[in-house]
Model the fold of this input.
Amino acid sequence: MTARGVHAEVEIVSCSACRIGNMADRETDISEISRSTIPADDTVTVDFRADADAEFEDADEVFRYGDTAVYRFECEAGTTPACPCEFVECRGCPVQSFRTTDGAVVLLFVARDVDHLRGIVLDLREQFPDVSLRRLTRSRDPDGSDDLVLLDRESLTARQREVLTTAHRMGYFAHPKDANATEVAGALDINRSTFAEHLSAAQSKLLDSILEA
Done:
């Protein structure tokens, strides 16, 4: 049976339900989270790695090696609202990696297939205010072909993403169009030529990623 798993990197911004994310400031990089549950009392023990000089009010340092330390805290399983890791894992996808960066939580996990991933992302967006899919890759077919292309959102500037998002939301790409270029430009508070410039640049980057893959 051919593996059709999808490796996804999902970013969640301003996630108040994430206890680790709330502990870290923008300068603290947290990685390598691990979770274990004690069935008898529904206690979840969480370990994570961060700089040895970091200070966390609700976590204890349990191990140190060089400039890195392992910190630990405990919480009750099934806390509402669920943290992003628990939310994803309850849908059958163990979180492989976790980190915080610039105030956002980034999770890496493997979904069974594209439909499974789509369902998880849609569910996350219902639970958390700002969720984006940063990267995804899929297992290749035995013949080396693959119809899934890696699109890196970071290749687009913030303005280009805003233009694409607004144009899509207003129905600019629909057929027939629900909004024309002038209307979308007005919503963005830019002139039509500037809108066309940003849109063209964004589309070129996306097409380059697709056609050169």
Summary: The first helix runs from residue 19 to 23.
